[in-house]
Amino acid sequence: MKNKVVVTIADRDYTMVAVEDENYVRKCAQHVDQQLREIANSRISQADAAVLAAMNIADQYFREQDAAENLRRQIKDNLEEVNQLKMELSEAKREIFKLQNRK
């Protein structure tokens, strides 16, 4: 179901239509508004501020993607290490069993 949500960005109201819930849409709009306000203090045109805000948001997005990919790699590496340790443990248990049965 699509939701219509009116948000305010840079003192202008926008009607957003989204499948996400209202709180999520408002959170996104607040983030964009905050980025615009930080840049707008530089006395540049609203269009230039919007482009710079979009660049900042894109930068944040790609940095978060890189961080997520690094975490995925770390998890994969850790899982491989866990599997290797499980195999070593299993081998050690077999060796202990053999040694105990020699007596």
TrEMBL record:
<dbReference type="InterPro" id="IPR036192">
    <property type="entry name" value="Cell_div_ZapA-like_sf"/>
</dbReference>
<dbReference type="GO" id="GO:0000917">
    <property type="term" value="P:division septum assembly"/>
</dbReference>
<dbReference type="Pfam" id="PF05164">
    <property type="entry name" value="ZapA"/>
</dbReference>
<dbReference type="GO" id="GO:0000921">
    <property type="term" value="P:septin ring assembly"/>
</dbReference>
<protein>
    <recommendedName>
        <fullName>Cell division protein ZapA</fullName>
    </recommendedName>
</protein>
<keyword id="KW-0131">Cell cycle</keyword>
<dbReference type="GO" id="GO:0030428">
    <property type="term" value="C:cell septum"/>
</dbReference>
<dbReference type="InterPro" id="IPR053712">
    <property type="entry name" value="Bac_CellDiv_Activator"/>
</dbReference>
<keyword id="KW-0132">Cell division</keyword>
<comment type="function">
    <text>Activator of cell division through the inhibition of FtsZ GTPase activity, therefore promoting FtsZ assembly into bundles of protofilaments necessary for the formation of the division Z ring. It is recruited early at mid-cell but it is not essential for cell division.</text>
</comment>
<dbReference type="InterPro" id="IPR007838">
    <property type="entry name" value="Cell_div_ZapA-like"/>
</dbReference>
<feature type="coiled-coil region">
    <location>
        <begin position="65"/>
        <end position="102"/>
    </location>
</feature>
<dbReference type="GO" id="GO:0043093">
    <property type="term" value="P:FtsZ-dependent cytokinesis"/>
</dbReference>
<keyword id="KW-0717">Septation</keyword>
<dbReference type="GO" id="GO:0005829">
    <property type="term" value="C:cytosol"/>
</dbReference>
<keyword id="KW-0963">Cytoplasm</keyword>
<comment type="subunit">
    <text>Homodimer. Interacts with FtsZ.</text>
</comment>
<dbReference type="GO" id="GO:0032153">
    <property type="term" value="C:cell division site"/>
</dbReference>
<keyword id="KW-0175">Coiled coil</keyword>
